[in-house]
Write a structure and sequence with these properties.
The protein is an alpha+beta fold. It is built from 3 helices and 6 strands, in the order ββββααββα. The protein has one domain (2-130). Strand 5 and strand 6 form a beta hairpin.
Amino acid sequence: MIISENGGCFMMGPNCRTFGMWSDGTAAVYRMETDLPADTLDQSEAEAVASIGTELAAHLTAISDATDFDDLEARLGPGTCNACVDGIDYLLTLYTDAGPRHFSSNEFEFDQTETLFRAVENALAAMSQQLQLPVDMYS
């Protein structure tokens, strides 16, 4: 899973984060000035790396595998451009057996009543606790 921020976090330099979580429970955070293709993330280039445990990764993988993505997309409400008003937009990429699935908060509402998005939010919260970055004001 890769979650990238874009938008208002650029106001004081490159403060947008990209979080990566791998199936072995490794999580990494990157601070980037531009979006990177998710499949090019290299843990050796991360600003911080931590282990958040295989249970969380396995749980997210199981929920992702059980999700009918076409049905989910049909149910989701429209997204909003938070970056248009100095907010932060998110790009979520989930790697499944059928290939990567992309969700942009500009296109879709990340509805927390949906099991998949609750699991993603739980994983992001765990990663955020382990992988804090200070605000970079002078880059």
